[in-house]
Amino acid sequence: MAGELPTCFDPYLRYAIASEFKNFEFFDEQKSKLFLFVELKRADLASDFMRAMSPHCFGAEFGRISPNSRYLTMRAYKKAVEANFQAWNDNVFRVELSLPSEPTAIQKSVRLDRFSSEQPPTSLLIGVIDDGCPFAAAQFVKRIAGVATGTRVRGVWDQNEHADRVPIPAGADVFGEKPFDFNYGLEFLRDSVSGVVGLNDWIQLHKRANVIDEDGCYADAGFKTLKHRGSHGAHVMDVLAGRIPLSARIARGDPPSWQPEDPRTDPACEADIVFVQFPESCLRDATGVWLKGYVADAIDYIMSFVDSGTKNVVINVSYGPTTGPHDGTAALEGKLRELVIYYDGTSGRPKLDIFLPAGNNYLSDGQVRFVRQTVADADHVEWTWRLPPDNTVLCFAEVWMKMNHTGGVVVTLTSPSGLSSSSTTGPAPPGLPSPPPAVPALPPYTGAYAPVDWGDSRVWLIAVEPTVAGAGMVPEHGSWRIKVEGIEVGSEVHAYVARTDPNMNMRTGAKRSYFVDAGWEAGRAAEAGCTYAGGEFDKTGSLVSRLGTLNGIGTDAVAGVHVAGGHILSAPKRKSPYSSAGRSRTGPLPRRVGPDYALFCDESDALQGVRAGGNRSGIVFRLIGTSAAAPQLARLVADLRPLTVHDAPASPPDEKRGWGDLYPP
Q1: How far apart are CA 20 and CA 27, in angstroms?
Q2: Are 360 and 366 in contact, with CB atoms under 8 Å apart?
Q3: Which of 339, 354, 473, 660 has the fewest CB atoms within 10 Å of its CB?
Q4: Could you tell me the sign of the dihedral formed by the alpha carbons of 475, 416, 430, 94, in that order?
Q5: How would residue 430 be classed by pLDDT, with cut points 50, 70 and 90?
Q6: Which residue in 344, 140, 168 sits closest to 243, CA to CA?
Q7: SS (H, E, C) 273-340
Q8: Which residues 6+ apart lie within 8 Å of 44 measured at CB?
Q9: Residue 7 neighbours by CB under 8 Å, 6+ apart
Q10: pLDDT value at position 291?
Q11: Residues 568, 18: Cα–Cα separation, whole Å
Q12: pLDDT of residue 287
């Protein structure tokens, strides 16, 4: 069936169809809906495509539709990707799968103007897309003329959609309702309306003797992430929009002052905030390959709060896959490009800036780069993909090449025991009888899949089922081998591993898989281990590359989309050891060389991380990673401060620190 699928279907949608969605939690063919991120061939084809998908059997629902946009999100039954292929081929350039959802019987709310507010909205609107929003914490109190009037959080959209996530009874009213324009999850607005309690009144319901019961406030609302001491979203919110700027919390010659900033010079400290909570199911799967549609909807949701008084919108997206084309052509990159070009601060529209972390994959051994330089070089390359035992999640890898050099290319995956799967035949299809015990075979759906065209590139998806013991055949753990044959002179091979180590506060049993250049390890590693410079050991000559590890949706160099790397505060010109680096692959769009700037992520080699707020008032903790750098850059831009570089690289911009280091806001 895979060979008959529309050409616009991305590799992961093809994998899901081939594997009959067996690895998707809660998937029910009769009830569950696929969540699809659709890139149209042209913006004016939206109505034609929606009309083609209107039959009741497809159950198609669409997110917010803009007449000027080529991108839309769609939820539909599985039948929508099993039929009507002509509509897909005629209208759609590319469609990507996000995690399916479990529809509930909750009715969507009536249409509300989110930009209406009982309290005067700020000209700066801050959006955060993350996990954990402590809207009742002291650092997010809204003050008018010095008087506390509630929360600065104008809205929280919890994208979780399951049978237990329903509006919370609050006397005769409820807290939370299904958003009218997306029809999944629950949104919680700051102001109360008829029958629906707002965030401010919900906080007041949990006030005891003039003290807010933050524990009860979050627990009663079903915000599971906020039961922990800290969360990723709480930290990012505090760095980006907390009352006390980061520069007042660190020692640089003088002790930290811990003093709030003046809103006249730091408007971020009093700006309104809109928060979008990622679904738990997506956070439990750390690959990031299933989140694209949720991110697209999240940005559209934040922009629905814009009114005529909004001058600047700053959105921090704590998300980034390690996979993808890495040449600026990922569908979500196209959506971001479209948004920042449209919202350019002219014609009555606000100026939109989107901020992404560079990623933390510099030392993760998750990328391979090979170039066949001359005819004398071998026309093939092989490396090891090491998979851990008892891994509870799917492991994916991708191989990317330019299409005009791939006529005779074959990708093969070989197990530790020598069982192979070639991209010419693909993994064992579903439905075939299991081989006798004496006949060794790879489990179904494990292997190298047929290539998929992607712009001027071609991608091969490689998948290995979870290695944890279970019913049926279980893939081997250990050293798998990936081999690419038929490489022409001058061709480049790039391969990426989808990260699988768990996200913060997630206990999934998932473990990291990674690449190994066995030949380099045997012949060069010992010598290279004696060379240490700039905070890293030498990796020269290895197929496993540390460069080119940037965030998979941060490789387009469009103005308005900013990528932040990390540096060590006490070591000038030293990036944080984990901070990902460029360059991007060559593509049709301007190449991103590396992150735009490097922001403080570690105080020293020994004291890593940035200290900022947790899930309760007065709690702080350290978060390690470039997720602490992106909100710093966002705050500097939100405050309209000049980006004055110190300790610039020798030839900026460079792959590791971009234009250089910036002091924290």
Answers
A1: 10
A2: no
A3: 473
A4: positive
A5: low
A6: 140
A7: EEEEECCHHHHHCCCCCCCHHHHHHHHHHHHCCCCCCCCEEEEEECCCCCCCCCCCCCHHHHHHHHHH
A8: none
A9: 89, 453
A10: 85
A11: 46
A12: 75
Residue 36 to residue 76: CA distance in whole angstroms: 8
Question: Looking at the DSSP assignment, which residues form a beta bridge with residue 568?
Answer: 602
* Residue at 49: amino acid letter: F
Helices (H) and strands (E) in the chain, counts: 12, 36
Contact 355, 316 (CB under 8 A): yes
Residue 650: CB atoms within 10 A of its CB come to: 6
Cβ atoms 498, 322 nearer than 8 A: yes
What does DSSP assign to residue 363?
A: T
The number of beta carbons lying within 10 Å of the beta carbon of residue 344 is 14
Express each pLDDT in 509-540 by its tens digit: 778 899 999 999 998 888 888 888 777 888 88
H-run or E-run covering 521: helix 518-523
Render 153-187 in DSSP notation, one character per residue. Answer: EEEEEE---STT--PEEETTEEE-BB-TTT-SSEE
Q: Are 215 and 232 in contact (CB under 8 A)?
A: no
Query: Is it true that the peptide bond before 14 is cis, omega within 30 degrees of 0?
Result: no
Please indicate whether residue 251 or residue 222 has the higher confidence score (pLDDT): 222
Other beta carbons less than 10 A from residue 653's beta carbon: 20
Cα 596–Cα 600–Cα 605 angle in degrees, nearest 5: 125
**Amino acid residing at 625:** G
Report the SS3 class of residue 248: helix
Residue identified by tokens 């309306």 is 193
Q: Tell which residue, 139, 121, 191, 184, has the closest CA to residue 157.
A: 184
pLDDT digits (tens, 9 = 90+) for 330-358: 999 999 999 999 999 999 999 999 999 99
**411 by DSSP, 3-state: which?**
strand
Residue 578 carries which DSSP code? Answer: T
Q: How many CB atoms lie within 10 A of CB 604?
A: 11
Q: Residue 30: which residues within 8 A CB-CB, separation 6 or more?
A: none
- Whole-angstrom Cα distance, residue 72 to residue 92? 11
Q: Which two tokens stand for residue 319?
A: 């998300």
Q: Which amino acid is at 188?
A: F
Most confident of 27-31, 63-67, 288-292: 63-67
Work out whether the CA dihedral 28, 31, 36, 40 comes out positive or negative: positive
Q: Are 647 and 534 in contact (CB under 8 A)?
A: no
Q: By three-state DSSP, how is residue 211 classified? A: strand
- Helix, strand or coil for residue 148? strand
Give, in order, the Cα–Cα distances in Å from 630 to each of 75, 513, 600.
Answer: 31, 26, 10
Identify the bridge partners of residue 422 per DSSP, sorted by sequence position: 412
The 10 Å Cβ neighbour count of residue 54 is 9
Cβ atoms within 10 Å, residue 620 = 15
Residue 597 neighbours by CB under 8 Å, 6+ apart: 564, 565, 633, 643, 645, 657, 658, 659, 660, 661, 662
Counting Cβ atoms within 10 Å, is residue 662 exposed (0-12), middle (13-18) or buried (19+)?
A: buried
- How many other C-beta atoms can be found within 10 angstroms of the C-beta atom of residue 155? 25
540's CB contacts (< 8 A; 6+ apart) are: 528
pLDDT tier at 230, thresholds 50, 70, 90? very high
Query: For 98, phi and psi rounded to 5 degrees?
Result: -105, 175
Instruction: Read off the pLDDT band of 572 (50, 70, 90).
Output: confident
Question: Which DSSP string do the residues of 249-270 spell out, in sequence order?
Answer: SS-BSBPP--PPPPTTT-GGGT
Eight-class DSSP state of 641: -
651, 652, 655, 656: CA torsion to nearest 10:
100
